Amino acid sequence: MDYYAGIDVSLEESSVCVVDSDGRIVREAKVLSEPEALIAWFCALGLGLSRIGLEAGPLSQWLYAAMKQAGLAVELLETRHVRDAFKAMPVKTDRKDARGMRN
To answer: What pTM did the predictor assign?
Structure first.
């Protein structure tokens, strides 16, 4: 089974959501917005993640570089595209953003 994750990055903690290929939520968490913390969290899952979506932003380049170097299948998502996709959401939260970025 394939697994996907979305990360909504905030200054101190990031919201992370992992789903399976059927869209079922496997795990959600708040993780420190530090490369080592995110890498450790994903490695501890024990799941082969097909893709991790990370919205482009001030901290994202730093996190992306470290996660990519650690061998994670991380992709930067264009902020404008992510924002447009979420405009239809009636209530915006970091948790919902992380869920939506998983694909």
So the answer is: 0.75
